[in-house]
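Hey, can you fold this one?
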Amino acid sequence: RFPGQAHPVRHRDGAQEYLYLGEVFPTVRVPATLKDFSAADSWEAWTCLEPGADPASPRFVRDADGRVLFGWHRNAQPADIALQQKWVADGQLRPEEACYVPLDVDSGKPVLLHRGSVAWNEYRKKWIVIACQQGGTSMLGEIWYAEAPALTGPWRRAKKIVTHDQYSFYNPVHHPLFDQDGGRVIYFEGTYTTTFSGNPTPTPRYDYNQIMYRLDLDDRRLESAR
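Sure. Predicted structure:
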């Protein structure tokens, strides 16, 4: 349970305000104070693992009816998107039991998201994610949109919104500060670079630079991601 490399989300759960962090989707949280941030025992993990369970041979927390239960715990390892997708692929977890297994709405295949940001969108009344794909048709150059009713999901569907021809566009982040029309139009930026792409010809003046995109959430092509 540690901060990792993530864009934090500040959100209140009941009377307590937390910082949520994770590889795209939140897998750890801590009360939003400097004292708690600095204390290892203040961090909680979003997980369905039993205390002490090895993710390689998972034992899941279940209710009396056998349903897998996710929750915030201080005595078990976080269950991130890569782990949940592996458990589903290995038949250890059913897709409907997972909360971080978004499927490509066009192909029906799982999408392993790498870096990105999650934010509340007032227009959609949903949490939305803008994230980069691990791999894909260009190395770290494919950007996806998804939405969910809660910060922890379930995140079920994802739609590719940006693609780059043998070029990388990594670590995208949505900037709610720039939202327009009540959140109908959003802005996100990322790092545009040849570094991971294998492309021998960098774009003059723009390589390893930040590029901003604008996205209209009313675009009919996003309907399938809802």
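The chain has a mean pLDDT of 94. Let me know if you want another pass with a different chain boundary.
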